[in-house]
Amino acid sequence: MQVSLTKRCIAECFGTFWLVFGGCGAAIFAAAFPSLGIGFAGVALAFGLTVLSMAYAIGHISGCHLNPAVTLGLVVGKRFPAKEMLPYWLVQVLGSAAAAAVLYIIFTGQPTWNLGGFASNGYGAHSPGGYSLLACLVAEMLLTFFFLIVILGATDQRAAKGFAPLAIGLCLTLIHLISIPITNTSVNPARSTGPALVVAAGGNPWAVQQLWLFWLAPLVGALLAGLFYRSVLAEHETPPVTEEPITYAA
Questions:
Q1: What is the CA radius of gyration of the chain?
Q2: pLDDT tens digits for 125-176?
Q3: Contact, 145 vs 221, CB < 8 A?
Q4: Is 185 left (phi over 0), alpha (psi -120 to 50) or beta?
Q5: Which domain covers residue 53, as residue numbers?
Q6: Which CATH number fits the domain that encloses residue 49?
Q7: Between the CA atoms of 126, 129, 135 and 139, what dihedral angle is there, to the nearest 10 degrees?
Q8: What is the C-alpha separation between 223 and 60, in angstroms, rounded?
Q9: CA separation for the pair 34, 214 (Å, rounded)
Q10: How many Å apart are CA 95 and CA 98, to the nearest integer?
């Protein structure tokens, strides 16, 4: 049975909220907790687990994109209808912004709170490791490219059934293990937007000023991955795009 666009958009909003709340929440609250912090590895695992859990929860409803770059890559790869891309983008950003707002409410409940970077993504002086704009651009493009290759491959009709969420969640974990020191890891324009808006609302505009990179690089990486998979790795005869969403649990 076909799920309506409205219900799929609600699922995408809900899922993106969980991604940002879980992943960024782990970075904000737990990464550096005195003597018991989970560190980079824990934050990387948190992001992977949010995608893994939501893929099983809503993959059969919306496809569980949770990411404008994923939606674009699936459109280019002929796995998702182009006319539904902008509604998905909108609700993904709304879900991220809502999660960041809730994180802010919780964060300010600590009496000595200091907003700081609030898990935002950055380059140059705002890169965790001080990496240049070019280095961050290349990293985000390349990692998003491979993320989409994994997604398109794991959800291919020829792939083993039922294991796509594991492959995708573990891939996102690996991506974070590589790139948290570089950009704080985006590969997801929606994930970057929510925290950036909170930092800007707190009086520091740097995260919004640098946000363009974390839209441009993931979208270009996803576009290239969609083109590459469709032209090189997909079946010669590509099935037509249908209204049914691609599901991570396929």
A1: 17
A2: 999 999 999 999 999 999 999 999 999 999 999 998 889 999 999 999 999 9
A3: yes
A4: left
A5: 5-233
A6: 1.20.1080.10
A7: -100
A8: 24
A9: 30
A10: 5
